[in-house]
Structure prediction request, 263 residues.
Amino acid sequence: MTRVATFNVNGVNGRLPVLLKWLSETGADIVCLQELKTSDEKFPEKAIEAVGYGAIWHGQKSYNGVAILARGQVPLERRRGLPGDPDDTHSRYLEAEVDGLVVGCLYLPNGNPAPGPKFEYKLRWFDRLIAYGQLLLEENVPTVLCGDYNVVPTEIDAVVPHRWVGDAVYFPETRKAYADMLAGGWVDAVRTIHPEKGIYTYWNFTYRGGYDRSSGLRMDHLLVSPSLSGRIHSAGVDVEVRGWEKPSDHAPAWVDLSGREPL
Prediction:
């Protein structure tokens, strides 16, 4: 069994105790991190290595940033940055191979305030992801595209859907782009296992530092290529991490893939 997980850490250095505790407990084989909010030279490579993971990362001071970790080895980098816009300097995409599995780690733009330039950038980025995703599918190798998509695909993915109708994560155009990815062949691992269950990966902070359970959203997704769809054994969210001391506003989501070891 191989577990692939995704976690928007909302600042890898500020949330390092949470990340290290979770890495020590999770048993995940491959981990994708988003919103590192750190330059490359300040990424906590040694601390992550001390709990058993090799890492590659694509940082950016104060904003964005993505990383891929693998238990007991360093992922083999395949791509840094999403193709399609040479002027895009945001650190939002990183791709690697681990034991024959291709893993794309992404942090899709939030898009707020919407409508406006940030939402237009979000949709352009999503179009690039859809186009590149099709190229990955044409390679016909086992692939997982995971991360913070900043998309709430359907009503079941929000505790209170009407609270989000004015938010870019729930706009019809955003949801259609995600649906287009699925129509192109990608498989939503969590929905495969839990087709009708309300499952959430994000909750707003409260002013006291806790979290508002009524604000729950599913925005962190693990999409797998068709060749892996029959190997989805289980999938879920480590919700308890959201309640730890000084947590991220996201909780880790994961999928267990059955089959030969390594993949």
